[in-house]
Amino acid sequence: MQSLLRYLDVEADSRFATLQPDQIANWVIRATRKPWFMRNRRCLRQGLLGTRFMRLAGYDPHLVFGVSTKSIQAASVSAHCWVELDGVPVLNDAQGMEEVYRWPGV
């Protein structure tokens, strides 16, 4: 996971300064509709792209990872990630997941 998260550690770039979070979120959703990579991990693709571009635009987003506590005893755990700005989901939402990791840490 750390190898993926290293791509999020970027400084603001003036070329992206005029972009609003909702513009970035909409672009990310359109760009990830037809996946070539990480086919079954849409929220991860969207979260990584959204976080990176929001940071480039000068925002301080958090990429949050969660699991469904109801799935812990199941054969496979249900997991999800989303992007938050100031504690509010802006790309995907928590979908009732229990937070297990936040990047960058609080």
Can you walk me through this structure?
The protein contains three helices and four strands. With 106 residues, it is α+β, with helices and mostly antiparallel strands. The radius of gyration is 14 Å and the shape is globular. Strand 2 and strand 3 (88-91) form a beta hairpin. The mean pLDDT is 90. Helix 2 runs antiparallel to helix 3 (42-56). It has a four-stranded antiparallel beta sheet with strand order 3-2-1-4. Helix content is 28%, strand content 22%. The longest helix has 15 residues, at 42-56.
- The topology string of helices and strands comes to HHHEEEE
Shape: globular
Largest sheet data? 4 strands, antiparallel
How far apart are the first and last residues' alpha carbons, in Å? 18 Å
Mean pLDDT: 90
| Rg, nearest Å | 14 Å
Low-confidence stretches: none
How much strand content do the residues show? Answer: 15-25%
For the largest beta sheet, what order do the strands appear in spatially?
3-2-1-4
Give the helix/strand class: alpha+beta
Per DSSP E runs of 2 or more residues, the count of β-strands stands at 4
What is the percent of helical residues? 25-40%
Count of DSSP-assigned helices: 3
